[in-house]
Design goal:
Blueprint (H helix, E strand, L loop, with lengths): L9 E8 L3 H12 L1 H8 L1 E9 L16 E2 L2 H5 L4 E4 L7 H11 L2 E4 L2 H18 L3 E2 L11 H7 L5 E7 L2 H13 L3 H10 L8 H4 L2 H14 L10 E2 L7 H9 L2 E13 L13 E13 L11 E8 L3 E8 L3 H21 L21 E11 L4 H11 L4 E8 L13 E8 L2 E2 H12 L4 E10 L3
This protein binds NADP nicotinamide-adenine-dinucleotide phosphate.
NADP nicotinamide-adenine-dinucleotide phosphate binds next to helix 1 and helix 12.
């Protein structure tokens, strides 16, 4: 703690909305580290109130009783910096708008609100010349938004791939290490507190998609909404998919991917380069086990960034939790306080580009296809011919004959499991190939179609 902080420095009034998991830790840091924060920012950060629903509820932080209030609106209007950690749509949205109107700097961790109504909030903040920061909204403690907007501002980001949902990473990691089916791994995650009672937003990929929209917007200087993100969750991933991927040297992760790709509909730019669009998508993905993201275990998060000059970068850490997330919130608060001390306009997120969103059909990637086929001569050549006819080139094909499954209902006698990894192919060509495979008399079923990245 720095005890040499001048008593005459500026005081900035800080309003905290919410004292739950994250808010209580932010209050603790503001109260316990007041002198150190003053030394780092050049201003005394005075916590002037904490808005909650129940002022008498027990709290994780030992803050003076008189700081608590249920009148969030009055609190917002008295502050220089408003920290919104209530979560949900309302009253968080109205309070943030009130804070912006009042000219206060806003810090929030509310990814759900930003995903739904971010563009309105960013525009209002821009118009009012106030700063709206939300480092905590993506990947909890991991500093990822400021590296993208500041540290890499002189570079050109080409791709961002993130494990940005701890619940789904925990479930997939458990399936990978124990061989459990999805439902059992989910039940385990719920029992241990890694999944919420209603896990829909996590397992259906909606939470990762909200973060994907934020990452894409900042990386590509264009505002993308949740509706721009192609989203597929992990509920369809089976223990058999995981085992087959493992056998072939891959791990399955739920990735949020945002990348620039040539946009065939837009032709070329004035300098002859292909015009670009952006694909933003969330889906279960096969990654080679040696890829840096494959090493991200349990509920941890990581974001892998590729930029033209910097090359590959990876940011890794805790994606949730009250104290880790409070670290990200306080980073935004300190940065905002420094700016308020120095003066000058707020740093707004650049949205100078208007890159179109590309449909999932525009994406070309490698695919993993699992199928149950008859174990008889000529099957492999029939399948290879069919792939070639559709312009999809096979990289590897593995066949496992399951003698022990011969009597099972689905497999039928003499069946074999085929696993094919393709070279890069378009979504459209792959879809047509899969449809054609299903029509072959030697195929019992197509058991999985998953995308492969990081090869
Ligand atoms: P939480 O534990 O549910 O806390 C919410 C707080 O807001 C509570 O103190 C609650 O008051 C207060 N509140 C809610 N509605 C209110 C209302 N209408 N009026 C006044 N106060 C109200 O939430 P959290 O886990 O701290 O999360 C806060 C935000 O951070 C969310 O946007 C979340 O998405 C984001 N975030 C959280 C994490 C994490 O690990 N938890 C990670 C990244 C981002 P009472 O206590 O009186 O009920």
């Amino acid at each position: 703690m720095d005890t040499n902080v001048s008593a005459n420095i500026k005081t900035l009034k800080v309003a905290l909305l919410g004292a739950g998991n994250v808010g209580s830790q932010v209050a603790r840091i503001l109260l316990e580290d007041a002198d150190a924060l003053a030394a780092r920012t050049g201003a005394r950060l005075q916590l002037v109130g904490i808005a909650v629903r129940n002022v008498d509820a027990p709290r994780e932080v030992n803050a003076p009783r008189e700081l608590y209030t249920t009148d969030a609106s009055a609190l917002v209007r008295s502050a220089d910096i408003v920290i919104e950690l209530m979560g949900g749509m309302e009253p968080a949205r109205t309070l943030i708008l009130e804070a912006i109107e009042h000219g206060a700097t806003v810090v929030t961790g509310n990814k759900a609100l930003l995903a739904v109504d971010g563009p309105t909030l960013y525009e209002k903040a821009d118009a009012a010349g106030v700063q709206l920061s939300y480092e905590a909204a993506v990947a909890g403690a991991i500093p990822i938004l400021r590296p993208i907007t500041d540290s890499l501002a002189g570079d050109k980001i080409t791709r961002v791939m993130g494990i940005v949902n701890g619940t789904t990473n925990y479930i997939l990691d458990a399936m990978d290490s124990t061989g459990a089916q999805f439902a059992d791994a989910l039940a385990d995650a719920t029992r241990l507190g890694y999944a919420e009672a209603d896990p829909t937003a996590d397992i259906e990929g909606h939470d990762a998609a909200a973060k994907g929209a934020i990452l894409a917007s900042l990386a590509f200087h264009t505002r993308f909404a949740l509706s721009d993100v192609h989203c597929q969750g992990i509920t369809g991933v089976t223990a058999e998919d995981i085992a087959a991927a493992k056998d072939a040297g891959y791990v399955i992760k739920l990735l949020a991917i945002a990348e620039t790709l040539p946009n065939p509909a837009a032709g070329k730019t004035d300098d002859g380069a292909p015009a670009l669009g952006v694909s933003v998508r969330v889906h279960p993905t096969l990654l080679p086990r040696e890829h840096p993201l494959a090493a991200v275990r349990g509920a941890y998060n990581a974001v892998f960034v590729e930029a033209e000059s910097a090359g590959e970068l990876m940011f890794y850490g805790r994606g949730a939790g009250g104290t880790p997330t409070a670290s990200a919130v306080m980073g935004d608060v300190v940065s905002a306080a420094r700016r308020l001390v120095l003066g000058g306009p707020g740093r707004t997120d650049s949205s100078i580009e208007v890159l179109p969103v590309l449909p999932i059909e525009a994406v070309a990637t490698r695919y993993y296809i699992g199928m149950d086929a008859a174990d008889q001569p000529g099957v492999l050549s029939k399948i290879s011919t069919l792939f070639a006819e559709h312009g999809v080139s096979i990289e590897t094909m593995r066949q496992t004959v399951h003698r022990e499954r011969e009597e099972t209902e689905n497999a039928g006698p003499g069946s074999a499991e085929l696993r094919i990894v393709t070279h890069r192919a378009s979504e459209a060509a792959l879809a047509a190939t899969v449809e054609a495979i299903k029509g072959l008399d030697v195929i019992n079923s197509v058991t999985s179609v998953l995308r492969v990245e990081g090869v």
